[in-house]
Write a structure and sequence with these properties.
Chain lengths: 222, 258
Amino acid sequence: MSYEFDFADVFAAWPELLQGLMNSLVLSALAMVIGMVVSVAGALGKTSGPKWLRWIIDEYIELIRNTPFLIQIFMIYFGLPSMGLKMSSNTAALLALVVNVGAYGIEIIRAGIESIQKGQIEAGKSLGMRPLQIFRYIILKPAIQAIYPSLTSQFILLMLNTSVCSAIAASELTAVAGDIQSRTFRSFEVYFVVTCMYLGLSVFFWSVFAAIERAFLRKPTR
Amino acid sequence: MSATASSADHEIGDVIIEMRKVDKFYGDFQVLRDIDLTVSRGERIVICGPSGSGKSTLIRCLNQLEEHQKGDIVIDGTTVHAKLKGIEDIRREIGMVFQSFNLFPHLTALENCTLAPMKVRGIGKAEAEANARKILERVHIPEQAHKYPVQLSGGQQQRVAIARSLCMNPKIMLFDEPTSALDPEMVSEVLDTMVELAESGMTMICVTHEMGFARKVADRVIFMDAGEIVEVAPPGQFFSAPQSERTRQFLGQILHHA
């Protein structure tokens, strides 16, 4: 084995790589923010919505958690257009990520909500608060505090999942890497650099999550 | 019938709470049986009885944290039931203090006191805070305003909980065994606060076994057993000459070591 490493071609493609990195970052961040909204709304529906809504949410969760992410993407990008819903590959990637992370996020936040003691809700009721006010001001923050580590792990998985979106030629990092690789044939070098970039993305998101925790979710200590 | 000193020294007004033939079931099990109770504005009632006798359930029906199945409950002119639209409007006039405090752990003492006035009554932040500080002073813990519940002792937490209810300026205060979860040395600070509240003319219904408190402030003491009101009497008579055998037994047990 006398493979000679040559990163020159890969580094020459740095503007593309950087663009791919930025696209992955933006795609992940958008999916996390929208996914969070879906998760909170879904968890609220699942814990206190009407029966038909709970049923729909349950079915949604089961469907998403028991099918491959790649198929979900294909369904949205290739399947929906036959029903008249056409979208760009990046939009389809974002939608698929949100739909996917929502199913997991709802279950995580539901667990957080269920960890809240009944007395908290009774205290809110006895003060004359309405159900949505109780959820917003009394339940939500302690619930998220309780499950924050699981939630952030799920969001990191989401970020890693963006690489699967290369399958529909979304312009994210893995797709860009594929392009460079097929042009330069420097597979090892390309994917080595891209691995480092994903690692960098993880470190970035972990530090954002930690900063959010410090700023908003720190629990008072004795 | 000897009226006690406590029932003569303050004003009692028109009827504010009326329970008529109230029944409540948990499945097949009947927790409240044919409860009739009328409470007047400014009256202080103490309810005692063995555990499982339905005393907590009774007061939790008043603000409909528990729903009753039969009979009527009328609060200040409004008949309440579980499906009542605007039950929140009734609840905000009824403060409730719980055995386990139930403070909001993610909010400071001050924020616990301002949340409902701001969100439910729509009072501005500055006014809500000024009012909350006044009331925290009234329960003797103004210096704890910026602490979180975990940073407070049990007695302090319960006084914050009382303050939180008072900040809504309620017409009625319900106490559900407010001292039962406290270390003995903290019981008196909470009871003192409750006595002061009683002296201010608040309508109070207290589920408690603190018989000293009952003697001191109650207009009437109610003894419950097996979901029924067994005996109602002014404290003087209740303690010295209980009519029912079950009341005598119960008092014998709880006053045994007093």
